[in-house]
């Protein structure tokens, strides 16, 4: 990391500071291959992507995260384990809001457990697909525009917060809509993880420019506090994403390419020699990647972190 301070192309998305330290001079978007910088705010320490695109539409093509049925089924299985744990907050069922609900897999799982569910999804086509396929209530309304009297026992931002240009206002709105005893649960990449430090700008979970903010445990705690939320628990295990991240990040470093396996699985690239080589390397790396992931969880340095937070001013609920 360079300690040279320079004016930031964009202000800090958390504190608004205008001076940053350069972390990576060049990190490439794995979809468009456009180059961005990654910098650290000199005031609050948050790491963020710059320059921030004026429009992100080109970076969210229709095939983004459009995996095949096998990968989708595996993700459903892993997500089910998380949902079973989260649902213990209200064993008899409660109300849940998922911000960035995508195809609605998590909401459907909550509904099957007796919960009342509502999803928010920025992409109307994705929201309509989930409505038709699963009969879910999914809106494109921002959290701030939901009825003021609506409260939720659980608000989920699963791999969402890092995509938000200004996370504090969103978290503040979530805090306002928590029922007494409610929780906000978020899952974000861990910029201080072993995997991030190993792969640097080739880290699979860096994913610029879709990931606008790159959190560490300390900066995530600070961001929550700025929004009136108190951290209750933090976990670092992610069996559905962490081992794969080690595989793809290692291949990125060894080949100089960017997310070859993921591009193929999303349908961006046809099968060819580069994809075949990546599959062979992935098979060799699978076991050590799994072992490294497990060790990083025990050390509190997993590639992703799950934070649970409550309102820091419960008397206002």
CATH class of the domain at 69-192 and 214-237 and 306-316: Alpha Beta
Strand order of the largest sheet: 7-6-5-8-9-12-11
Determine the CATH topology of the domain at 69-192 and 214-237 and 306-316.
Rossmann fold
Number of helices: 9
Choose one word for the global shape.
Answer: globular
As residue ranges, the low-confidence spans are none
Structural class, by secondary structure, is alpha/beta
Helix content: 25-40%
Hey, roughly how much beta strand do the residues contain? 15-25%
Gyration radius from CA atoms, angstroms? 19 Å
Order of helices and strands: EEEEHEHEHEEHEHEHEHHHE
Question: Biggest sheet, open or closed, and with what strands and sense?
Answer: 7 strands, mixed
CATH superfamily of the domain at 69-192 and 214-237 and 306-316: Vaccinia Virus protein VP39
Give the averaged pLDDT, no decimals: 89
CATH architectural type of the domain at 69-192 and 214-237 and 306-316: 3-Layer(aba) Sandwich
DSSP, total strands: 12
End-to-end separation = 42 Å
Question: What would you say about this model in short?
Answer:
This protein is about 35% helix and about 25% strand. With about 325 residues, the protein is of the alpha/beta class.
